[in-house]
């Protein structure tokens, strides 16, 4: 049973033809294919080094972006502080404006008093003018000359002096009140204008700071988006790194199995040669093994989306859709290099195949479940899961990819499976 399983495993991994017993040409061909597998393993190793370099480079870029974020964050905090200080100044100026407005109200009351006094004096002056007009043009000199006696003259002189002084005082007070009125009005207007201008300047400064903050936040959002993009790229690179490691491991297993197979074939050939030389019978050929021919990956369904460009972007595989419980099969003999859940692929299985010395990788995505594990040798037509709708999927279907060579992040090895794999 173990020998049969070994034979199937070797054939399923390598997809090689039958080596006739004692045929040195077939053994040489197998050794050549081992060399090819070693070369492909070397290529995978080189790609791993390339991925590691990209990861290091991406890590450095990510650190640069994070440093930029720190600087931008400091600048935003500085602007926030400046905005806060400006808002504090604006509130202070608003209080000063309120105080000024209160002072203006007081000044306006004082102005009203002044205006009333000035109005009253105007009336007094008008009354004096009317009295003079009604009594004729009598001058202070006429009043003095009208004295009957010297005593009357002295009395009249005192009265005239009092009138003159009163008139002079009225005029002085009147002019002083008018000057004070003009001064207070100007003071009110100047104070209010200055405060309003200062408030306007502060408001403009606040707008400018808000614009700067908005610009910095825009830069920060862009940096965070760039960081997310870099994280996504690093996740994808790590995923590719893991797949390459699994491919390398599968390749090593394939080489070991092929070496065992060649040794077993050589041993059988030697035994057959001994039997033939001793007249023990005819040579016995090895039983037939899988030729590595492809089989349909889904038990049922129709091709719902082909390979290549479509409205949702470049489709690097084909979709097979069906309803109900639909088994998914390994399209050819091979080794499982990845069995995992992906946010995009959902439940996915990657299988590496070596067919006639050429490495192929098949991908089975959006499955309901996975029935194989990494490193497991599978045979063509072996069930590996059920069709599903996991990951970024719209309706139950199998997303199937075929790559000539190793799977990589940019899927440069993807080929159209139509015409190669029965669908």
TrEMBL record:
Natural source organism: Robertmurraya siralis
Entry's Gene Ontology molecular function annotations: metalloendopeptidase activity
Name of this chain's protein: Peptidase M24
Coiled-coil stretches noted in the UniProt entry, renumbered to this chain: 27-124
Keyword Glycoprotein on entry: no
All copies of domain M23ase beta-sheet core, residue ranges: 314-406
Annotated region described as Disordered, given as residue ranges: 266-290
Keywords, ordered alphabetically: Coiled coil, Signal
PANTHER family assigned: MUREIN HYDROLASE ACTIVATOR ENVC, PEPTIDASE-RELATED
One Pfam family recorded for the sequence: Peptidase_M23
Stretches assigned to the Peptidoglycan hydrolase PcsB coiled-coil domain: 111-184
Coiled coil found in the keyword field: yes
């Amino acid at each position: 049973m173990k020998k049969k399983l070994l034979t199937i495993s070797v054939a399923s991994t390598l997809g090689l033809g039958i080596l006739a017993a004692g045929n040195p040409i077939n053994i040489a061909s197998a050794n050549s294919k081992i060399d090819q597998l070693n070369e492909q393993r070397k290529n995978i190793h080189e790609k791993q080094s390339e991925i590691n370099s990209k990861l290091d480079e991406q890590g450095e870029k990510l650190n640069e972006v994070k440093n930029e974020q720190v600087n931008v964050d400091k600048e935003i905090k500085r602007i926030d502080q400046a905005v806060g200080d400006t808002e504090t100044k604006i509130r202070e100026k608003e209080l000063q404006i309120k105080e000024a407005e209160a002072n203006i109200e007081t000044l306006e009351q004082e102005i009203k008093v002044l205006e009333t006094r000035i109005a009253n004096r105007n009336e007094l002056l008008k009354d004096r003018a009317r009295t003079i007009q009604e009594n004729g043009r009598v001058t202070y000199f006429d009043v003095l000359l009208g004295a009957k006696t010297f005593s009357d003259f002295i009395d009249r002189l005192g009265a005239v002096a009092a009138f003159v002084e009163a008139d002079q005082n009225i005029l002085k007070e009147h002019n002083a009140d008018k000057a004070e009125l003009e001064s207070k009005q100007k003071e009110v207007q100047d104070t209010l204008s200055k405060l309003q201008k200062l408030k306007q300047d502060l408001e403009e400064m606040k707008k400018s700071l808000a614009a700067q903050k908005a610009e910095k936040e825009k830069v920060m959002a862009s940096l965070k988006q760039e960081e997310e993009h870099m994280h996504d790229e690093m996740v994808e690179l790590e995923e590719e790194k893991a797949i390459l490691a699994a491919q390398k491991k599968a390749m090593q297993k394939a080489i070991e199995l092929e070496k065992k197979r060649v040794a077993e074939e050589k041993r059988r050939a030697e035994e057959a040669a001994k039997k033939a030389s001793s007249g023990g019978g005819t040579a016995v050929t090895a039983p037939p093994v899988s030729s590595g021919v492809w089989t349909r990956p889904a038990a049922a369904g129709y091709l719902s989306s082909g390979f290549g460009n479509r409205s949702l972007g470049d489709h690097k595989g084909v979709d097979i859709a069906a309803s109900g419980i639909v088994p998914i099969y390994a399209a050819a003999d091979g080794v499982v290099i990845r069995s995992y859940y992906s946010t995009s692929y959902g439940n996915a299985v990657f299988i590496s195949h070596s067919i006639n010395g050429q490495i192929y990788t098949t991908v089975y995505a959006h499955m309901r479940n996975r029935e194989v594990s990494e490193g497991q040798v599978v045979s063509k037509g072996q069930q590996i899961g059920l069709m599903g709708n996991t990951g970024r999927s719209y309706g139950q279907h199998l997303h199937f990819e075929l790559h000539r060579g190793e799977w990589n992040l940019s899927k440069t090895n993807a080929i159209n499976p139509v015409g190669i794999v029965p669908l």
